[in-house]
Structure formats: C-alpha cells, structure tokens
C-alpha cells in the first residue's frame, strides 16, 4: 500500500480520450504523479507535442500548471499506486459494449502491477465487470468501479467540480480513493467555480457500475419525454417552449435537459441506454420505460427525416446546419445530424452542410461541407437545423432566404421562432414536421 502520509499518489492512466486525458490532467493538477498511456500513435503524438485533440475548454490552462507524461508503453506500471482504466468500450453491432480494450489492459496490469495496487475502472462497463476482474486476472490488486459523469464540452469543470464522486469496491481501497480525490472532496481545486465540498458516495462495485447507467438512462429518458411533449404541443397547437419552461420551475423536474430536438446522440447515450437494456434483459428484467425511450428516440429522428423527404422532391438539395452530436464539440459519433444526413441522401436528396466545429465528415462522405451557413444555403430547396449551436438561434434569415431556392425551414432543435422564419419568407416546420 502507498505511504499513508504522502498526499501524492503515483497514477497510471490507460487511455487518452475524453475521460482518460481529462482525468490525467486533473489528477496531475491536484498534485499526483501521473503517466497517461495511449496506444494510438496519432493521438499520442498530439498529446506529446502539447496540443489538445479534445479541445476541451480549460484543459490547456490546467495542463500548463502541471505535468502529465504521455507515453506509448506503461513503463512505470510496476510502481503505480493507482491504475485508472479509461479505455474505450464502443458499442458493437449487437448493441453490447466491446470490452476488448478493457481486457487487454487488465491482462497487462495483472502481469506488471504491484500486489495491492488499486485498479480504478472509469470506463463504462456492464454491471459485474469489476467483480469478474477482481476474481480473475486482477485478484492480486483491488478493483474499484469509479464511473465518471463528464459531459463533452464541460469535461474539465465536471471533473474538478463534480456533483458527486461515485466509487465502489473492496473496503481496503476506500482510503486510497479518498486520498486520490481529497482536494476535489474538499473543494480545494484550481477553478473559478464556487468552492464546495463534493460527496464521495462509496458503495459496492456493482452498484457503482449501475449508478452510471442509471444516470445516463434517466437523462436520455427525460429527453425522450421532453421530445414527446414537444411533438404533442405541435399536434394540439400549444407552445412547446412555454410548456417546457413551466416545467423547469419545478425543482423535482430540474431546469436542464428540457430542450427538445430531433433526438439524443453522442458516444454515450446510445451506447449506455442499449447496454442498460441488455443488462436488464440478461437479468430477466423487462425495462419497459427505457425501451420506450430508446424507441421514441429512433422514431423522433425518423419523423423529422420523413417530414423533409416528403416535402423536398428527389434530387433536391437540403442545407444542413449542424453535424456535431451537440453544440460545443466537434464530435460526430452517433450524431443525430449525421444520421439525418444519411437518411436524406438515401432518399435521393443532396445535403450541403455547415457546422462551426466540424470540417471533415468521414462517417457520411456524401455530405458536402461549406464554411458558412450562407454558403451552405445557396440554391437549397430547404434548410434543416440539426445541432443546437447558439449561432443558429441568431441567423440572418432574410439573407438566407435570398440565396435559397426553396422556402422550407425545418427546425430540428427549436432554435428559430416560427414568426421570425415566416417574416423572412420561410415556411416553418417544427420537430414533428408541422408548421404554418
Ligand atoms: C452525457 C452525460 O450528460 C454525461 O453525464 C455522461 O458522462 C456522458 O454522456 P454527453 O454525451 O457529452 O454527456 O452529452 P450531453 O450533453 O448529455 O447531451 C447528450 C445528447 O442529448 C446530445 O445529443 C444533446 O444534443 C441532447 N440534448 C441534451 C438534448 O437534445 N436536449 C437537451 O436539453 C440536452
């Protein structure tokens, strides 16, 4: 076990993606001795030459004040007090998380880590994974589930000032976890946010693993419900914005995650909701609400796409505003905007896109990308807003109407007031495709 008196711990982080790299920089900024292992040469080179491939706000500043060794091989794994596993668990074609990278790291740790070292599982893994690793390859170490709740675009803040730290595993490991996060728990962190203590919620490994899925599953379900309310409001000619705003005043509902759209996406919600549903199925439990939320999200996108393809003749052109899965990031993994583009192209429409952060789109090569919303709209038969970038809420609609061939505006993120669209000469179409 590490020296009980030293506050600094030797930490090896596996994975330099959103979770791993941010965790590494944050732990180094808190005073720990951190090495971050990245096997992808291109990503490793970016970190080693000082750039930030994530472009996470605040990461560069935090990194300037501390030192993380980004390496290809975990050369000092044998002396690590804590080994943080933050490798990818991407969704396989059957919806299950791919644990290949986790297994590879576990085998390397089993061979080279000290007896009694703490293995911290930050990757989102099915319930029971930590217990299996503890009984199997990592029986000489202590395996602790420590899920993260980072939002892309807010990863540094969500790491330094989390609402809670969730961790679970052998009781012998608890003291070290408290030392690892001591400054966060005490609110003694380098941030402008108001300093406040953060609770460390200690539980069993299985509970900590399920806590992660429960949080993401609930948030996705909340969004599916919000989207249903927005659809219904259109059907009954009510103002969805006013209805949802009224909900925001109830603290039991919460004022966040009330923005309706053409669906939720990203590298987490689609993967985690499917994984949670599989975990339930595998345990013989029928998770009705979650299945409905997943199905509603798929239907939300289909309805929006159908509203466009039924209004624009085949061969027509759609100006797609937004490609990232949400505002504030260039990440297009499981992006509803990209899924929409695929459906429009499959229906014989051309798509010309603009996104403030996305310049290249490998997932859907049929999409032409322009440097401005105005350029993307030139000659377009319709405009479709697909990502909630703030600038799409203050577009010069009259200027866009002067360059479009058609007058349809499909607002997939409730960014534009219908009256403003009408005043600029557009026919406005909301989420469910209805309009004036
Ligand atoms: C999410 C969880 O928020 C985070 O806690 C977890 O650790 C990882 O997954 P992230 O994937 O970065 O974070 O995205 P988030 O900001 O949660 O948005 C997810 C999706 O919901 C996006 O497609 C976004 O456009 C959509 N969304 C979000 C809405 O449609 N409306 C909203 O009001 C908020």
Provide an overview of this structure.
The chain is α/β, with parallel strands linked by helices and 436 residues long. The protein is built from 16 helices and 14 strands. A six-stranded parallel β-sheet has the order 3-2-1-4-5-6, sandwiched between helices. The longest helix is centred in the middle third of the chain and has 31 residues, at 205-235. The protein starts with 9 loop residues before the first strand and ends in a 7-residue tail after the last strand.
Entry keywords:
436 residues; alpha/beta; 6-stranded parallel β-sheet; 16 helices; 39% helix; elongated; binds uridine-5'-diphosphate-xylopyranose
Quaternary structure classification: single chain
Nearest-angstrom radius of gyration? Answer: 23 Å
Bound ions, cofactors and other small molecules, one mention each: uridine-5'-diphosphate-xylopyranose
Name the shape in a single word. Answer: elongated
| Strand order, sheet with most strands | 3-2-1-4-5-6
Q: How confident is the prediction overall: mean pLDDT?
A: 95
Largest sheet composition: 6 strands, parallel
Number of strand elements: 14
Bin the helical content. Answer: 25-40%
Kindly estimate the percentage of residues that lie in beta strands according to DSSP.
Answer: 5-15%
**Count of discrete alpha- or pi-helical segments spanning 4 or more residues:** 16
Report how far the terminal alpha carbons are from each other: 68 Å
> By helix and strand content, what is the structural category?
alpha/beta
Stretches where pLDDT is under 50 for at least 5 consecutive residues are none
């Amino acid at each position: 076990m590490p020296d009980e008196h030293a506050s600094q711990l030797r930490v090896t982080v596996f994975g330099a993606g959103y979770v791993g790299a941010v965790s590494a920089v944050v732990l180094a900024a808190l005073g720990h001795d951190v090495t971050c292992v990245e096997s992808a040469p291109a990503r490793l080179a970016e970190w080693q030459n000082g750039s930030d491939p994530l472009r996470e706000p605040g990461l560069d500043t935090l990194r300037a004040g501390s030192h993380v060794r980004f390496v290809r091989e975990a050369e000092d794994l044998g002396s690590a007090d804590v080994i943080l596993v933050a490798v990818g668990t991407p969704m396989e074609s059957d919806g299950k998380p791919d644990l290949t990278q986790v297994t590879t790291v576990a085998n390397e740790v089993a061979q080279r880590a000290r007896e009694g070292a703490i293995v911290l599982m930050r990757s989102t893994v099915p319930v029971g994974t930590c217990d299996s690793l503890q009984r199997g390859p990592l029986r000489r170490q202590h395996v602790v589930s420590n899920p993260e709740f980072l939002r892309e675009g807010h990863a540094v803040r969500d790491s330094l000032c989390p609402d809670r730290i969730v961790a679970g595993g052998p009781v012998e490991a608890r003291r070290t976890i408290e030392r690892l996060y001591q400054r966060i728990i005490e609110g003694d962190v380098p941030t402008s946010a108001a300093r406040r203590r953060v609770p460390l919620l200690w539980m069993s490994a299985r509970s900590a693993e399920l806590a992660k899925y429960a949080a993401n599953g609930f948030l996705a379900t909340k969004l599916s419900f919000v989207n249903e309310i927005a659809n219904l409001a259109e059907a009954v000619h009510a103002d969805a914005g006013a209805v949802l705003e009224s909900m925001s005043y109830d603290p039991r509902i919460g004022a966040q995650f009330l923005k309706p759209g053409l669906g939720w996406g990203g590298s987490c919600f689609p993967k985690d909701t499917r994984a949670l549903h599989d975990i339930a199925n595998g345990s013989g439990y029928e998770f009705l609400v979650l299945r409905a939320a997943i199905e509603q999200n798929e239907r939300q996108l289909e309805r929006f796409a159908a509203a466009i393809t039924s209004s624009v003749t085949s061969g027509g052109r759609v100006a797609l505003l937004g490609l990232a899965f949400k505002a504030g990031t260039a990440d297009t993994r499981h992006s509803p905007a990209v899924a929409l583009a695929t459906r429009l192209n499959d229906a014989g429409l051309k798509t010309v896109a603009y996104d403030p952060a996305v310049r290249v789109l490998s997932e859907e090569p049929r999409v032409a990308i322009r440097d401005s919303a105005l350029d993307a709209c030139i000659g377009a038969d319709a405009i479709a807003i697909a990502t909630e970038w703030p600038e799409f809420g203050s577009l010069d609609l009259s200027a866009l109407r002067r360059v479009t061939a058609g007058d349809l505006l499909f607002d997939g993120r409730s960014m534009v007031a219908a009256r403003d669209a009408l005043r600029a000469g557009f026919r406005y179409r909301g989420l469910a495709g209805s309009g004036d």
